[in-house]
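Milestone M4 deliverable, item 7.
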Amino acid sequence: MYDTASDLSTQPPGAFGPMAITGTWKLNQPVNAWTRVFVHLPDSGSQTQQAIYTVHPGDGTTENRTLNVYATSNRWVSLGVFDFTAGNSFQGLELSNFTQDGIGVGGEDIAWDAAAFQPLPAKPTDFVVQMGDSYSSGEGAQPYLQGTDVGPYADLGSQSSPGRSWNACRRSQNSWIRQTTLPGRSTEIGQLADTDDATIDYHSTACSGAYLASIDSTGATDTTNTRIWGHIGQHHEVPQLTAGFLDANTTLVVLTAGGNDAGFSSTVQNCALLDCPSDASVKSNIDSIEGSLETLLTHIHAKAKNAKVVLLGYPELFDMTDYKVGCSVMTPPLANELNGWADYMVSDEQQAVGQVPSAGSWLNFYDVSREFGTFGVCGLNGGGINDLVSAPSTTGGGDFSCPGSVKPCPSMESYHPNNRGVQRYAVALENALQVDNY
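Output delivered:
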């Protein structure tokens, strides 16, 4: 791994205030190879969720990567693998303290620390990016990665938090993408990534609560189309498509998306705590996502034109083959109704994918129903999906809080795949990739 020479010697170390400043790391010898770029996140002074790192491969072009660098421990993070070309152009890395939510007051501190460059023997075989919502991030399958489960707790009613540090993307160490073994390999993606294997480049921008706009480049906006922060699914991270991890080198993009726009979370919550909405209203909400889902998938393809894109569906929540009263807070009629709406969602997603131009060559929808089978709530196989989970009463994470409520306060983990369920999703993705001949 090449050490680095920094041009920051004329600037004070650590975090900076309201003045826009750019720090530069320069390679101390030219590189003409595919190169993995690392940045070190210190245990203090690094709070922003929007640090924009600009990579200079040496051919005069640049590539940006936006990271959530909220860190409480010293750790190295990969920005990705880039094709470095030795020549007359600058080779290295830049970091500005400018972020989309501002600098100084209104923004969070950025800390300049070490960077490193690791030349690889060849271009990696696989460039994998996971995107999407809570079913992708691994909500419900603890433990969560550092910086993605940060309080203060969210208000259930407003689906937001006033805390500038709030992040409940809750990307799991055990998420299904990390447990997936790609065709022709014998080691899971997570293990390869954790050891910086030279044959793979892997990143996840998936975020619990993400709406289609949170994934696409729009992001959460107010009535004046001004981007706003601190709302579920966006938190204080940039929209997933603007984070920079999709490019012409990307070989595979996987995601789940659309459930939040279809109101499925609130539908399940109402069924559990109040009354289910009408069948017509739920189906109308599901139907309304088709256009936005088609647009998102098209935008993904525009940024990752050489990638296979796999949209995974949502499973039925309940296994009704041996449903026993008392195994869930849902009665059998409610469970059956929710399963029916999940099936309706699958049919709408299939239809949306079928309407994307030239989808057959690069896009596939995969229904995960077969892999979940008897792994739903009350399932014969012990259940791979959480039933209603109570939100924690202690502080420290980004989950919901309902002070003074006389009703149960549901955790974000409710009705999400647990550690057994994410394994079923991993199997589903492996099967999808076999079908696609990836």
